[in-house]
């Protein structure tokens, strides 16, 4: 009776424990078992591994153990298991590694039938060429194989040796033509491997081989275009292509020679409108960057309403640099149709009205723009001393929709990989899953990612899907404790620290840029070393708390160097202090004009974004100050940096 009474009490106690807690406890046990089982997955026939698989039951990451087990010993005797795995996990990240290694195994055995049975394009050129070669070996697939070759051939680099026989058969069958050879040669010259040019030149008819020499010279030394006698006008269209390419490169090195050569070339050859526009656009940007005396001429010539946004922006930047406000209005009013209602166009039109003594039209433009959650909208609100409008419309998704997506196998795998801090694998699963979701399901996935604290994936999803008004989820107070503490310690505005982290990494803790910046606030190892006065490991920089400590410390350092000017400090965070100092004008320039004329597009957009994000985070943190009231009236000059 005592035993029965005790059991009843235990059952009663268990009934009081929420099912979610029991499920969480089960997952924690399974995670530990999974990690322990991983080392045994390399011995798939061992009793320890088989027992571990049984114990894991329905654990979402069990397929990853199966993948490792298959890869540990690919052989024909396991074909049935491999086939089942590839079928079950087709169109998931689990498929590719197994499929590629299996295909390579079959390729080494020259098992053509099985190779073609399992082949799917994974982007591996060796396998793609082998697929074409095996198809060529079968008469009924020969034409199908030839159709695959042009895509393999038309690349600006040497292809894998597996392609050689395929290319030869394709060529022997008469499919390799002079236009295709020339097309590949141009690809090799323009951004590809130029050492391929002599070989491709040898494949051209004798009468066209000089074109190979022209392209090789253009790639090695664009100033060679000045020797127009080397362009005999035998193949006018092809020669003009070399001239246009060369001049667009030469103008960055020797502006005077480029413009002089173009004048001579235009007298000798009949360039069409597209070619003339390409040269004008190339010259316009190169000259505008350095505020060259001829910049306006080429900007006017290039900006002829064809919808080239980049040229329009550079034209606007150029006239703003000189603060010629009537010209600003003229440029905006002649903007391509797609840019007429652009926020920047509307803002600069208002600014020009303001300086042209037309306050009524200026206020009308500012009023309309001030309701927009955007850098230019916030500037307009600052001009009117209005509170910025965040236009927050939180997304509402039903519990049923969320549960459906959360229970998808790929979502379960992604969530578990995230829990194990295997971020790269988690992103692969998550990104591939989203490609198979409807729009509404994609929104549900974005909400789930936010709920899981996977802020970068929530932010990216909302942006990709075009739902931009869920402000709290798009601008989360992620890692708030370390960010607030570090910002306070280093006397940095926490809204600014949040804005920097949001722009730098979207709160991706393992963010790693191509130049080596790491973590939430994208700290360069050298910067961390200088701040710590010792070497700082990558592991430290990927730790969120330590990363924001270095990030906010560096923000404080930049503020001290830039006389507490957050705009200049923000620009320096992105481009470095030395560059920012070079960009500073001797005399006072309005802040908005200075930002718009920053020579680096990346830094220009970076400063705009961070300032806008800072305003959003100020309001999210309960700080009602409109920082754009100050920014809208701020002046920038060289006197604003510490000596």
Outline of the structure:
The protein has 643 residues and is mostly helical. Helix content is 66%, strand content 1%. The longest helix is centred in the first third of the chain and has 20 residues.
Strand runs, count:
2
Oligomer state equals single chain
- Rg over C-alpha atoms, rounded to the nearest angstrom: 31 Å
Mean pLDDT across the residues is: 94
Please state roughly what percent of the residues sit in beta strands, choosing from under 5%, 5-15%, 15-25%, 25-35%, 35-45% or over 45%. Answer: under 5%
Shape: flat
Class of secondary structure makeup: mainly alpha
Biggest sheet character: 2 strands, antiparallel
Q: What labels describe this entry?
A:
two-stranded antiparallel ribbon
Account of the protein in words:
With 643 residues, the protein is an all-alpha fold. It has 38 helices and two strands. Strands 1-2 form a two-stranded antiparallel sheet. Helix 14 packs parallel to helix 16 (273-289), helix 18 (309-321) runs antiparallel to helix 19 and helix 24 (409-419) packs antiparallel against helix 25. The radius of gyration is 31 Å and the shape is flat. The mean pLDDT is 94.
């Amino acid at each position: 009776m005592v035993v029965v009474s005790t059991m009843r009490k235990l059952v009663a106690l268990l009934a009081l424990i929420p099912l979610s807690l029991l499920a969480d406890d089960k997952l924690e046990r399974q995670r530990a078992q999974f990690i322990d089982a991983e080392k045994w997955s390399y011995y798939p026939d061992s009793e320890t591994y088989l027992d571990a698989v049984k114990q894991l039951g329905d654990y979402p990451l069990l397929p990853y153990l199966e993948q490792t087990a298959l890869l540990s010993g690919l052989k024909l005797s396991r074909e049935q298991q491999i086939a089942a795995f590839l079928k079950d996990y087709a169109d998931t990240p689990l498929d590719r590694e197994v499929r590629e290694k299996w295909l390579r195994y079959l390729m080494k055995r020259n098992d053509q039938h099985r190779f073609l049975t399992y082949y799917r394009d994974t982007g591996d050129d060796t396998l793609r060429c082998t697929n074409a070669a095996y198809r060529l070996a079968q008469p009924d697939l020969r034409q199908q194989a030839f159709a695959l070759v042009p895509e393999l051939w038309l690349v600006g680099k040497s292809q894998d040796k597996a392609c050689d026989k395929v290319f030869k058969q394709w060529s022997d069958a008469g499919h390799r033509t002079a236009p295709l050879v020339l097309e590949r040669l141009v690809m090799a010259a323009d951004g590809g491997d130029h050492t391929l040019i002599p070989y491709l030149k040898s494949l051209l008819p004798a009468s066209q081989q000089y074109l190979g020499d022209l392209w090789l010279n253009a790639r090695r030394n664009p100033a060679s275009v000045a020797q127009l006698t080397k362009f005999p006008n035998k193949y006018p269209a092809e020669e003009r292509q070399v001239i246009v390419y060369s001049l667009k490169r030469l103008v960055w090195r020797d502006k005077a020679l480029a413009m002089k050569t173009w004048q001579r070339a235009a007298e000798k050859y009949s360039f069409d409108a597209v070619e003339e526009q390409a040269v004008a656009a190339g010259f316009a940007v190169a000259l505008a960057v350095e505020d060259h005396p001829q910049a306006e001429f080429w900007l006017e010539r290039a900006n002829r309403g064809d919808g080239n946004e980049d040229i329009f922006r550079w034209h606007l930047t150029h006239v703003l640099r000189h603060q010629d406000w009537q010209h600003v209005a003229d440029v905006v009013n002649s903007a391509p149709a797609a840019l007429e209602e652009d926020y920047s166009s509307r803002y600069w039109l208002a600014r020009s009205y303001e300086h042209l003594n037309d306050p009524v039209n200026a206020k009308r433009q500012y009023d309309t723009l001030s309701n927009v959650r955007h850098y230019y909208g916030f500037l307009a609100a600052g001009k009117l001393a209005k509170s910025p409008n965040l236009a927050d419309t939180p997304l509402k998704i039903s519990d049923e929709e969320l549960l459906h997506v959360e229970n998808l196998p790929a979502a379960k795998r992604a969530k578990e990989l995230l829990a194990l801090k295997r971020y790269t694998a988690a992103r692969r699963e998550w990104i591939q899953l989203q490609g198979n979701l409807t729009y509404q399901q994609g929104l549900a996935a974005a909400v789930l990612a936010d709920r899981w604290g996977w802020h970068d994936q929530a932010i990216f999803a909302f942006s990709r899907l075009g739902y931009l008004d869920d402000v709290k989820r798009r601008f989360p107070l992620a890692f708030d404790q370390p960010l607030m503490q570090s910002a306070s310690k280093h006397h940095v505005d926490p809204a600014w620290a949040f804005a920097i982290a949001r722009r730098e990494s979207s709160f991706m803790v393992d963010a790693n840029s191509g130049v080596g910046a790491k973590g939430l606030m994208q700290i360069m190892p050298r910067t961390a070393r200088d701040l710590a006065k010792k070497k700082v490991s990558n592991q430290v920089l990927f730790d969120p708390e330590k990363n924001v400590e270095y990030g906010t410390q560096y923000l404080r350092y930049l503020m001290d160097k830039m006389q507490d000017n957050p705009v200049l400090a923000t620009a320096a965070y992105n481009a470095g202090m030395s560059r920012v100092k070079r960009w500073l004008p001797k005399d006072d320039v309005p802040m908005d004009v200075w930002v718009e004329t920053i020579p680096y597009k990346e830094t220009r957009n970076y400063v705009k974004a961070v300032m806008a994000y800072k305003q959003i985070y100020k309001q999210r943190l309960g700080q009602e100050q409109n920082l754009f009231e100050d920014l809208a009236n701020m002046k920038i000059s060289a006197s604003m940096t510490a000596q």
